[in-house]
Write a structure and sequence with these properties.
3-stranded antiparallel β-sheet, 9 strands, alpha+beta
Amino acid sequence: MNVVKFAYYDEFHCTGPECPDSCCKDWRITLTKREYLDYKKMKCSPQLRTIVDSAFKRLKNGSDIQYAEMKLKENGDCPFLGEDSLCMIQKEKGEEALSFVCGGFPRISMPYGEQTVIEACTSTCHHVTELLMSHPEGLEIIETEYDGKDRFLNAGRYSQKAITKEHKAYDHYWSILNAQIDILQNRGFTVPERMLILGYFCSKADGYVENNEAEKIPALADMLLDNELCRRIADSLKPPMSDINSAIQSVNILLRMNGRAQGFNSQPNGSERSAIAKKFQKVMERLGLDSKLNENGEIEAKFSFSAYENLRQIYRSIENERPYIIENLLVNTVFTQNPQKRIWKNYFALAVFYNVLKICVPAFLPENYGDKELALALTYAAKMVLNSDLAEEGTFNDFFLEDKYTLPYAAFLIC
């Protein structure tokens, strides 16, 4: 079996107590029926047994795959998180005793056909983001023989569904993925320009797939290797919009996502939702946002344009001085997106993510920051969009209903 992954994948290791954003906090952790039963009969110390016996709750209408979940503490901590910031289960029983969710994060695995597995790491982990920042040369894809050491792969457990021959673009999956990465890594253009060119490619490729013309995609990818053509595409897609109008539209997107995040506090996995809501609230405060409901039940909001411009200027300096950081973050996100979804939907999600980065990353930065603080800010922004599903749970519907689910509007989100 072959494994396709980024070269940095093997550099990853959990930093444990040194991590400033532990995945053992504010995160919904589900268990399969098999894992739940194994924990219930696990031989362990009396101290650990006491915690195990009260740590899980069965899910109403649960399945064998999602059978139970951890009952987090009031502060959002996992019940097995010790005072030393280490997992009590792993300390006493070893890594083999961890559930799939805990043992696998932040790794993502997805089979392609019967002989290939795609492996990646999500940037919602702080150390992964640090690794992305440590490769100014860009991310390299490598293909190796599977070494047989991953217990989850050996058991046939993957974090995403397999890409099978029934997939509309199965025969051209690698052409699509490689073209997306080639475009994002083309340093002859600024990062926003690369996103515009990528939008052109994804819009065309999505149409080809939906019209059963996927065989045209390799030629499209080859065509976009021409920098002169790409320059014309990027220039033609740059939207004419004033800074104040752009600010209003961008803040409106965050405002809608914030409203949904606040509303999710009272729902199941409240701790995880609450943590996301607090991150949105931090951004709103940095923007000097004041919002209220009007007589028609609509949200009216005021924000400080100078505060917005200040945040955007901080972001511009990051992207201009070290564009490879944003490049690597976007390339990694494309590599980890679910190919079961349409090419265009994945691209639009990436455009929303990029729009959020421009405001949220600087909002989380202290006045004097270093690489660790920058990695943490990037991770927070990734969690706000990639982990919370807030974009797909309503924002995409907003765009669709308002006729904004288009390449021109995606271009606005980018520029």
